[in-house]
Write a structure and sequence with these properties.
about 25% strand, single chain, about 270 residues, 9 helices, elongated, 2 domains, alpha+beta, D-Maltodextrin-Binding Protein, domain 2
Length: about 270
């Protein structure tokens, strides 16, 4: 499948990503041979996957899997499993697909196949509300101090493309966000998903907001996240790729994105 990243604005002004080329048509695949798709996911990674008080699975990944099944009119099950056992379950035939925020990497590709990406983890700048600046860029940020996680892809990206920026490195994302909140740094650059969840929660205290971006260079930030499947399961792969495109075209993906990410990571 040809994958591109385009952005559309939702009703709330949130940018919604789309990874499907509108010029690339997919015919509805034959699904009569698919009796059931057994999805596995995780239940301790909110808002992507979590258990309700009554034990019901919920979250962006879970609801997306159910939407794909509805689009295909195929019976599906969604069960929770420890994250580090997902690929084993796929390889050993104990599950058909894993929808669990699994990155499409060379190491993972060696074990399983993937659908087209259903989300990516872009890099984003976040600044304190009082900071006044034009759109972030190598020129507008020259001479400014930007916080970043040490030895990360984000640090490497800034060193390559923002040479005039003074970097202040932190041990991890939590330390970086804490430094931003207490005004130790006014601008930070890092994982857009982690920033979005922080900004949407109470920990940020309304201190900050996204500025510019997103930055999606795959050499630094990866190919994205896909649904993992066995390498010989092409019938299900074709079906899920078709369904992913259809739920995007029909606005179902946008509804789920806005539901779980009111502060979107794009």
């Amino acid at each position: 499948m040809i994958c591109v990243t385009t952005l559309a604005l939702g009703a709330e002004g949130v940018s919604i990503p789309n990874f499907h080329d509108p010029q690339h048509r997919l015919d509805r695949p034959e699904t009569s041979s698919i009796r059931v798709i057994r999805f596995v996911t995780e239940d301790d990674y909110p808002p992507f996957g979590f258990a309700q008080p009554d034990g019901t699975l919920s979250g962006f990944n879970v609801d997306l899997a159910r939407a794909l099944c509805e689009e295909l009119r195929v019976q599906c099950t969604v069960q929770s499993r420890r994250w580090d056992t997902m690929l084993d379950a796929i390889e050993q035939g104990r599950a058909d697909a894993a929808v669990a925020s699994i990155a499409i990497t060379p190491a993972n590709r060696a074990r399983v196949d993937f659908t087209a990406p259903y989300y990516k983890t872009p890099a984003r700048f976040v600044a304190r509300n009082a900071v006044t600046m034009a759109e972030p860029g190598p020129e507008t940020l020259a001479g400014r101090t930007v916080g970043v996680v040490a030895r990360s892809a984000h640090e490497a990206y800034l060193r390559a493309f923002f040479p005039g920026v003074s970097l202040r490195a932190y041990d991890n994302g939590l330390a970086l966000r804490s430094a931003l909140k207490r005004n130790e740094v006014e601008i930070a650059f890092g994982d857009g998903v982690a920033f979005a969840l922080w900004l949407n929660g109470t920990d940020a205290g309304g201190c900050c907001a996204f500025r510019g971006g997103p930055y999606t260079e795959s050499r630094y930030f990866g190919e994205g996240v896909g649904i993992a499947l066995r390498k010989d399961n092409q019938t299900v792969k074709r079906a899920l790729d078709y369904a992913l495109k259809r739920v995007s075209e029909r606005g179902v993906y946008a509804d789920l994105y806005l539901k779980y990410f009111p502060v979107g990571f794009y």
